[in-house]
Write a structure and sequence with these properties.
304 residues; 39% helix; four-stranded parallel beta sheet; alpha/beta; six-stranded mixed beta sheet
Length: 304
């Protein structure tokens, strides 16, 4: 499917929706009266995993056969998912990569996967990348990348379309959990999740980046998607473990233990931090006894 103005047939990719919701016993939570559900968005599709499917699907439909351009760093999960979507649907894709210096180096496994899936990479210097949200800078980048008429998806995939797509995640959990917990990068998944939960559910976001900027981003995304705030949500900024792509031996040990306990692979940069926060918050007494918490598994480990 490559013709211009043709809507890609996303149903042909056979997404597993709604994603599985499985109760999972964990003594560390049970002793505080907390019931755990694992929302396995990592099982939606083997290549468009978790919130990547929910964010990308509406954007791919909106692209209507045009080239899809998106942005990310050298290890971007989002760029890999966008490249995979392009291959699966026959859509041309361009990845604008942060760091002009990377153009002179061998591709790392993440970027090599993007290229293998047909994505054309365009490297930009870090100053330009920081200004990519400015219309004049974006236009210049698109011209330089030979993609002036492309459908642009922002870094991390979070825009109004993505937030609307993530609302279905909250709707799938409505009435099933008191609190839905999700790791956050750019805030789109949390914005949509909270909107879909309904009046009796609360969403808790665990940012994986430092900076304290995410609350404003979530509010802006909800305004763009819905015209104003939606749902009951809050953030706990304490569990970034040093920032994006940072881990520690303690986090690695926790993730390995969780894998052993629950028989589930744990992605380290997002999911492990969210699960660590869940256990820590339960031990702090953050959840009333009898609370059902749904932990959203938004991704899977990258195997290179």
């Amino acid at each position: 499917m490559t013709s211009r103005d043709a809507v890609p047939d996303l149903a042909a990719l056979r997404p597993r929706l709604p994603s599985p919701l499985r109760e999972s016993a964990d003594g560390r939570l049970e002793r505080h009266g907390v019931r755990l559900l694992l929302k396995r968005d990592d099982l939606i599709h083997p290549e468009l995993i978790g919130n990547k499917w929910r964010k990308l699907a509406p954007n791919l439909a909106a692209a209507a056969g045009r080239t899809v351009v998106s942005f990310g760093g050298a290890y971007s999960n989002h760029l890999r998912a966008t490249a995979a979507a392009g291959r699966l649907l026959g859509l041309p894709t361009v990845g604008v990569v942060r760091g002009q210096e990377l153009a002179e180096r061998p591709l790392n496994p993440s970027l090599a996967r993007c290229v293998a899936d047909g994505m054309r990479l365009h490297f930009v210097d870090r100053s330009t990348y920081r200004r990519k949200g400015e219309p004049s800078t974006l236009a210049a980048v698109l011209r330089a990348a030979g993609a002036r008429d492309a459908h642009v998806v922002p870094e991390g995939g979070s825009n109004a379309l993505a937030v609307q797509g993530c609302r279905a995640l909250g709707e799938e959990l409505r009435g099933r959990a008191d609190v839905a917990l999700v790791a956050c990068g750019t805030g789109g998944t949390l914005a949509g999740l909270a909107a879909g939960l309904g009046p009796d559910g609360r969403a808790l976001g665990v940012p994986v980046l430092r900076g304290g900027f995410l609350g404003a981003e979530v509010r802006a995304l909800q305004h763009a998607a819905f015209g104003g705030p939606r749902g009951d949500w809050w953030l706990d900024e304490r569990f970034h473990f040093g920032g994006y792509a940072r881990t520690t031996p303690a986090l690695e040990s926790f993730a390995e233990d969780f894998e052993d306990r629950h028989g589930m692979p744990v992605e380290r940069l997002y999911v492990a931090k969210m699960l660590y926060a869940l256990v820590a918050l339960a031990e702090e007494g953050a959840f009333a006894r009898g609370t059902t918490v749904a932990a959203v598994v938004t991704g899977a480990p990258f195997t290179g």
